[in-house]
Amino acid sequence: MMFVANVSENEFTDNKHLSDLKSFASKINTPVVTICASLESQLVDFDENEKKEFLKESGMEEPGLNRLIREAFRLLGLQTFFTAGPNEVRAWTIKKESGARGSWRKFTQILNEDLFVLMLLVILTL
Questions:
Q1: Which end of the chain is flanked by fewer CB atoms within 10 Å, N or C?
Q2: DSSP-based three-state secondary structure for 3
Q3: Cα–Cα distance between 19 and 36 in angstroms, integer?
C-alpha cells in the first residue's frame, strides 16, 4: 500500500495535512508520494528544457508521475527487461524474483515452437 497526496502548488513543501499523513504513514511503514496534479498537467505541454526549468522553479527534481511509477514498481516487486532486435526494442515488465533469465527461457521456448510450426508448414507445402 502507498499513499498518494495531491497538494496545491503553494503547499507542496509546507502543508500541515501532508505532514500529518507522513507521520501516520511512517508509523505503519507505508510510503507517501506527493504530487501536484495542476503542475503535472502543465508539464505535458513543455519540451525537455522547459520541463527542467519548470521543475526547478517549482522545487521538484522530477515529475510526480515518475516518483509514483517508481514507488509502485518497488512495492509490486517489478522490474523492466529490455529486448532488442534489428527493427525494434521492447520493454517487458516482470517480477524481480522471476529474473530476466526465466523470461528469456519462456521467450525462446515460444520462438522455438513458432519456428517448428513454420518448418512443418513449409515441409507440408512442398
A1: C
A2: strand
A3: 15
Give the CATH number, domain containing residue 39: 3.40.50.300
55 with 62: CB under 8 angstroms? yes
Q: Per-block average pLDDT, block size 10, for the chain (126 residues)?
A: 89 84 95 90 89 85 90 91 86 75 62 55 49
Residue 90 is part of which domain span?
Answer: 80-125
**Distinct helix (H) and strand (E) counts, the chain:** 5, 4
Per-residue pLDDT tens digits for 55-76: 888 778 889 899 999 999 999 9
Which residues face 4 on adjacent strands? 33
Residues 11 and 64 in one domain: yes
